[in-house]
Amino acid sequence: RNVHLDTMVLRNVLLSSLFMLWAHAFETRSSRVHASVTAWAGMGHEPPKWSNAVDEFKERIESAKAAAIGAVVGSVAFAPLDLVTHFSNIPQWEFNTDMAAVQGALFAVVYRYATREDGNPQLKQGAIGAFVLVRTLAQIQVSDQCAALPLRCGEPLSYLDYSMIQQMIIAGGESTALFGAVGFAIEYLADRGLLGRFPSAGK
């Protein structure tokens, strides 16, 4: 029980750090929105919901399309890799693939909104990397021989033993395939006009 608690605390700290980095990445956009709201408030008008003209109905349709694309592409990219590790447990493989479809759908919606019409590749890679890291860490289970407070699991890194490192590598590969494929599909379809990008601030 102590081992599980220690792992949960670590995950919460990592998640909090990721959210802080995410918030910092969007600081520039937030300042633009704040400036727009301040200007409208100074003129006595109700501040707009968006800092630019947005057709909400159209964007809902595009988000639904992105979710469907993410679900299909993500599960297709994930399924063969997970089948290797769960070949003897097909029900677990089926459940994992279904969950990958849900994760791919949610990621696609967030990715489309986060990257918008911004051509910055670091923003796109950061969005994928954040999801990969969070999912990978969430898949790791501590070994039975681990001792808690502080966590000690043995060779080769004390905090991580060989079994946990193996889990990290497998989960990292699956997560990279899942979210990387969805990100590539969103970019591919958006570049060809088959999926609309969310408008950038000020456009």
Task: Supply the key terms.
mainly alpha, disordered N terminus, 6 helices, 203 residues
Radius of gyration: 20 Å
Helicity level, as a percent range? over 70%
How far is the first residue's CA from the last residue's CA?
52 Å
Indicate the proportion of strand residues.
Answer: under 5%
Main β-sheet: number of strands, strand sense, barrel status?
none
Number of β-strand runs: 0
Low-pLDDT stretches are: 1-9
Number of helices: 6
Structural class by sheet pairing and helices: mainly alpha
Overall 3D form: elongated
What series of H and E elements makes up the topology?
Answer: HHHHHH
**Mean pLDDT metric:** 81
Offer a concise description of the structure.
With 203 residues, this protein is an all-alpha fold.
Description:
- The protein is mainly α.
- The protein contains 6 helices and no strands.
- It starts with a helix and ends in a 12-residue tail after the last helix.
- Residues 1-9 have low confidence and may be disordered.
List the helices and strands and how they pair.
Blueprint: H1 2-25, H2 27-42, H3 56-85, H4 90-115, H5 121-138, H6 162-191
